[in-house]
Design a protein that fits this description.
transmembrane, PAP2/HPO_sf, single chain, 0% strand, 74% helix, 213 residues, elongated, 9 helices
């Protein structure tokens, strides 16, 4: 009968939905930066596992959650995952995606709204781990700090080290076989894909109209 607990339990499944979303996006888009983002999330989880097994701080109520995969709780993997995802997405929105059209106000507005949503979800997922007795406040706090630091470091690594290599990687025969592409030089991939798709649709519509005459 605890509606809040049920809602927070569903929210705590956020990392699973995000991973599924990334896998789906990679299958259909096959873009190197998206693959790098997922690689960062996986690396972040590995760092979390390492820290947990070094500190070995138990969860607040081990007997209440016997089905968890590890008995250690410092730092919270959910909190670290969500803050990595949120902070990296925030950096991507404001530093990687630049405006390419005239709708300056709307462009900034949707970025601010999306950033606020990302932070809100990260806060709610972190809170859910305490509410559901999986973690203490300190475990959630340190998880958030670790995830944020990892996100900043991985974003810098991607921008400074990996991005210059993307054109070369995209030219590999195996990359061409799997249609893996590099869009790092395109400031706003959403706007680019929209304009290219619209232009191609109009071009095909004109050709079809010519054939029917």
């Amino acid at each position: 009968g605890d509606f809040s607990g049920q809602l927070l339990a569903y929210l705590s499944l956020g990392p699973i939905f995000i991973i599924v979303g990334f896998v789906t996006l990679i299958i259909f888009k096959r873009e190197l930066h998206t693959i790098s983002f997922l690689g960062g999330l996986v690396f972040n989880e590995g760092v979390n596992w390492l820290i947990k097994n070094v500190i070995r701080e138990p969860r607040p109520c081990e007997e209440a959650h016997s089905a968890v995969t590890t008995k250690y709780g410092m730092p919270s993997s959910h909190s670290q995952f969500m803050w990595f995802f949120s902070v990296y997405s925030f950096l991507f929105l404001y530093l990687r995606m630049h405006q390419t059209n005239n709708a300056r106000f709307l462009d900034l507005l949707w970025r601010h709204v999306l950033s606020l949503c990302l932070v809100t979800v990260a806060l709610l997922v972190s809170y859910s781990r305490v509410y559901l007795l999986y973690h203490t406040w300190s475990q959630v706090l340190y998880g958030g700090v670790a995830g944020s630091i990892m996100a900043i470091a991985w974003f810098a690594f991607t921008q400074e080290i990996l991005t210059p290599l993307f054109p070369r990687i995209a030219a590999w025969p195996i990359s061409e076989f799997f249609l893996i592409r590099d869009t790092s030089l395109i400031p706003n991939i959403l706007w680019f894909e929209y304009t290219v798709t619209r232009a191609e649709a109009r071009n095909r519509q004109r050709k079809l109209g010519t054939k029917l005459q």
